[in-house]
Input
Amino acid sequence: MSKSIESILRDEVFAELDIEYPEDHNTPLLDQGIDSVGFIKLIVSIESKFNISIPDEDLLFEKFSTAGLILNYLTGKTI
Output
């Protein structure tokens, strides 16, 4: 069985970036230590791990500012 989106995000993407996966999905990633460079690394890692390309118009921090928003985005892209 393949891993769920959340488990890949937690166990691979966040772990690779050395960011603790928040229990509260509404916790701002800024509070987790994400800065502008970290955001770029996050996007690159998401694209790699999920084999997707995030269009330029979606590359807004507001769309990826919490784990919950990332999960919602990825769920919409992978269905």
The chain has a mean pLDDT of 90.
